Amino acid sequence: MPDVFVVLEKDHRKVQGLLAEIEGTSLSTQQLKERVETLIIEESKHEAVEETHFWPLVQDKVEGGQELTKKALNQESEGKEVLDQLGKLSPSDAKFMELVSTFAGAAREHIAYEEEQVWPRLRSVLTKPEQEDLGEKLADAKQHAPTRPHPNTPSSPAAQKVMGPVAAATDKARDTMSGRK
């Protein structure tokens, strides 16, 4: 099983790839809508599992972890708000690409923050087995994570553990009914 950093890096590269495709503007309206839906799904899953498993560990194990986590959760909360708005718009809406641009800048900043500020500190305090165990938890949790942003759901691990499964079940039902992948 890949370790936590491999799992998260894979997610980050996927998001960066989707953003590059979306911003490239060579997509048809339908392709743009599909890519943004994929982005929303991937980001929603990623942030939910980080809030449940990753950030609590950063808080507990890393010196200054509370401050690192607070900043990251604020960034993620802002991202959820933008994705929630974006998910309600059509690519033909004038505000659509503005929100894409807003999210893209924030996402790139957040990814850099995690990879450059948080990961080195967490890597230095976790053993290889702990890194692999966390990677497995994240990969497993993504299978059952919400597929839509829930900006009004608290980012705390307890809230995610209680409300996350309900949100995920509701999201999957909505996805099925709407034909969303």
Strand and helix layout:
Layout: H1 4-23, H2 29-61, H3 65-87, H4 96-125, H5 128-142, H6 157-178
Helix pairs in contact: 1-2, 1-4, 1-5, 2-3, 2-4, 2-5, 2-6, 3-4
Provide keyphrases for this structure.
mainly alpha, elongated, 6 helices, Four Helix Bundle (Hemerythrin (Met), subunit A)
Question: Can I get a quick summary?
Answer:
The chain is mainly alpha-helical.
CATH topology: Four Helix Bundle (Hemerythrin (Met), subunit A)
> What is the distance, rounded to the nearest whole angstrom, between the alpha carbons of the first and last residues?
26 Å
Low-confidence stretches: none
Main β sheet profile: none
Topology as a string of helices (H) and strands (E): HHHHHH
Write down the overall geometry: elongated
Question: Helicity level, as a percent range?
Answer: over 70%
* Total domain modules: 1
CATH class: Mainly Alpha
Name the CATH architecture.
Up-down Bundle
Cα-based radius of gyration, to the nearest Å: 16 Å
Counting H and I runs of at least 4 residues, what is the number of helices? 6
Structural class: mainly alpha
Beta-strand fraction estimate: under 5%
Mean pLDDT: 86
By DSSP, the count of extended strands is 0
Structure description:
34% of the residues are buried. It is built from six helices and no strands. The model has no long low-confidence stretch (mean pLDDT 86). It is elongated, with a radius of gyration of 16 Å. The chain has helices at residues 4-23, 29-61, 65-87, 96-125, 128-142, 157-178. It is mostly helical and 181 residues long. It has one domain: Up-down Bundle (Four Helix Bundle (Hemerythrin (Met), subunit A)), CATH 1.20.120.
